[in-house]
Amino acid sequence: MDGRLHEGRFGVGEVSPVSNIADRRQSRVTVVLSTGLASSIDIAGLALPDISVQRYTGTLDSFAADASLLRVTDVLIVELDPADVRAVEAFERFATAQLGRMAVVAAVRELSVSTTRRILRSDAIDVLPLPFSADELHQAVETARQARQEQVPPPNYASAPRRRAKIVSFIGALGGVGTTSLVTQLGALWAGDKRVCLLDLDVQFGNAALYLNLRPRMTVADLVEAGDRMDAEYLDSVAEKHVSGLRVIGAPIDIVPFDIITPEMVQRLIALAADNFDVVIIDLANAWTNWSAAALSVSDVIALVSELSVAGVHQAKRQLDVLEANGLTDRVQLVLNRMATSLFRKADLSQTEQALKRKVDFVVCNDYPTMSAAIDEGRTVGAIKVKSRLEKDMRALQAGLEALPMVTS
After folding, report:
1. Which pLDDT tens digit goes with each residue over 72-89?
2. 100 neighbors 149 (Cβ within 8 angstroms)
3. Could you read off the pLDDT of 46-73 as tens digits, one per residue?
């Protein structure tokens, strides 16, 4: 029965729900045991109010391959045979790779002084005898907690020095104006000569990955759940790569509450992406939250997308008023999408600009067949229709946004 999750606080074959990921008061322990030993340890008897325990019957390799288990484990206890040189080396490599994210503990039959010394010379935080008692387990968890407290605290990303990446956030004036279509096409285009990361922070209805024909195994929810363990390596493992070179961190697969994200977490995530890419593009939901405001506050450019309709202009004006109230007007670029255009006459935007009390910065034409085909196939509009007006407008948008200064500090 290799690779099976057994009883404990999480239940049989379950993982903790996304809605509880912000709760860091409880240490989540996974015990990896071979089939022969699994039935001899009473997992239910090891748990405490602040410690949940689950038993995984299998090997370290099979556990490490299961991303859903990795993200719900704070302390990992692994049955280890010190006579198996390859297994010991694999254990040591895993402990090093998880340093700062997950505390790793070895559990050894007939534990000797020499074995203990070797294991503790690695990046494992403790070693236990097999079978171990509840007191021994709890002591190992306390050691893990102490080790985490002694780590250097994460930097204050809100006040950190300017990172090298340009951060561009997109918000729609209202739903259905094609914001995600623009975001995905712009990201794929920009990735032609820059390292670009697209963060889909529309946590309830985000479709950026889908529009690029990507089916990510891990999403923003995994980064949120990682908490303090989120680092550049973990970010890279979550980001899916599109054929254009664009890296995409998709929205959660399931609809989740807005409050799974905090302002501190979103600023940390954006700063981490900005440290590792040249451009970070963020697709935000239309709804205003504390954390979406925090995302906008660290953005160099805020692209407000609307359309030339009564509702579009009205809602764009409302969004502009909120942005002004938050002191963000100087970062806003107004994009009118799906504009009906003609080869011989430019659209008259004078009345629209008068109503909005500001100019329109970019116009993207309405070419539904080309854009729809690009989304269906997960390709760029240029790959669908060469030298189209739509591609020309997208390139103008990319060049214009790239030329804007980086204003945050």
Report:
1. 788 898 899 988 988 888
2. no
3. 666 777 888 888 888 888 887 667 777 8
Q: Is the pTM of this model over 0.70?
A: no
3-state SS string for 60-107: HHHHHCCHHHHCCCCEEEEECCCCCHHHHHHHHHHHHHCCCCCEEEEE
Confidence of residue 141 (pLDDT cuts 50, 70, 90): confident
Strand order in the sheet with 103-109: 4-8, 51-57, 27-33, 75-79, 103-109, 126-130
Q: Are 43 and 31 in contact (CB under 8 A)?
A: yes
Token representation of residue 61: 């390799």
For the chain, list the domains and their CATH numbers. Answer: 4-150 (3.40.50.2300), 157-403 (3.40.50.300)
Contact criterion met (CB below 8 Å) for 250 and 214: yes
| Number of other residues whose CB lies within 10 A of the CB of residue 88 | 19
Classified as helix, coil or strand, 216 is coil
Please say if the pLDDT value at position 180 is more than 60: yes
Q: What is the pLDDT of residue 18?
A: 31
Report residue 358 CA to chain centroid gap: 34
The sign of the dihedral angle between the CA atoms of 88, 89, 93, 94 is: negative
As given in the structure block, the two tokens for residue 290 are 């504390």
